[in-house]
Amino acid sequence: MRFGMDFWSLFSLIFLVTAIPVAIMIILEKRSPFKTAAWVLVLILLPLFGVVFYLFFGQEYRKRKLFSRKGLKSLNKYRQLSFRQLRQVEKSMKYLPPKVQDKGNIIRLLLKNSSALLTTGNRLKILNNAADTYSAIFDAIEKAEHHVHMEYYIIEDDEIGRKLKDLLTRKSESGVEVRIIFDDVGSWGLGKKFISDLRNSGVEIYSFMEVRFPRLTSRVNYRNHRKIVVVDGQIGFTGGINFADRYLKGAKGIGPWRDTHLQIEGDAAGCLQVVFAADWYFVIHENLTGNKYFPPLSHNNDIPVQISASGPDSDWENIGQAFFSAIAGAKSKIYVASPYLMPPAEIVAALKTAALSRVDVRILIPEKSDAVIPKWSSFSYIEELLEAGVRIFFYQAGFIHSKFLIVDDVFSSIGTTNLDFRSLETNFEVNAFIYDEAFTASLEKFFKYDLHHSREVKLKEWIHRGWLFKFRESLAHLVSPLL
User: Fold this and answer.
1) Residues facing 207 on adjacent strands
2) Is the pTM of this model over 0.85?
3) Which of 35, 103, 227, 375 does the annotation list as catalytic?
4) Which of 279, 401, 420, 477 is catalytic?
5) Each residue of 44-68: pLDDT tens digit?
């Protein structure tokens, strides 16, 4: 009896001095009710574990800013250009095609929330799957004359990783400047020898937000999910493809890896360079400036593009806001490809509202996934979307990892952002926002080709799935805000 009393006394003391103060802190942060409820529930059920888990994974940094960009010269230059463009946006919009003008709300939003300069001197190419992507990137690096800048969530010491290392080593030894940022968690298995071999050849390579004790707390939660290559400030790449063999060869249990990347030649490559330069400044506090890194804008009359980056260092959830604005303003169609489907409540509402308004809303996700909890959490959103008339498709020819959005006939976005709250609210991400009919039509063809290799989920089928499936989905839905 006495042991029981002592145990509950100790438990109550732990609860009072740890869980209750942290729960009050979470409530005062005024995050979404869904996230707040999930964290408070964990603190009630597992107070000591919940406090530790919150300190590692749960703290919000957007309002406090994870790091300062003050003193970053290249960013200041582009901000000044975007501020000037924002002041003159109505005048500038008159020179754009009428259908692009209809998406002026997105252009103005991105100018305001992320200083995303609208550039028109761009030529774009959709790269389907890893083979095309690696071939294009290696070709661009081979032709580099001044610098190669790379920023990746995952670089692995495997066949494709070593091929990249050998090429970068050769370019560096020939006098080309090579700089690499890799995410410390995403590239956890990247060995010291791989890094030292590159450094010995003159490559500057650093991890982003190194996760080592005692700096482990909370940093592990804010990962750099960006994939960026910039060569000589004139050609750039972004999209869903990291450097790992599975992107070429597939993964055990889920089959071939289907993905989409984007090649940019022209002014928007300079905007990708700004994103890289900002992260480089954060990593080693070095400014990259000058025409070699940032060639003068051409202002050619090609494809209009805005590059927007978001993360815990930005004032707003830039990419998420742009997605919401695009979906809410859709008139005829919304096509989405994403490996995970865990959107914030406002985007769920926008998708349902669009479908109920007779907009053709189609979402393509994998049936087999590389992550268990995100898979079941993604499935937990399907029923309410189907009820509103959203069409859901399960990709059948492997694992689809593409991340893009198409709205109407003139707007699309390709980048690193999944349609989930981690990408839209927590990770460091980057997306290209494209305003062009021909490009959108090309992307739509690839989307519909993927639909031919998919099966459509019907509401009647989904409602009658087994109770075990529903339980797993509900449990994953509950814990997903914590991950």
Assistant:
1) 182
2) yes
3) 227
4) 401
5) 555 555 555 555 555 555 545 555 5
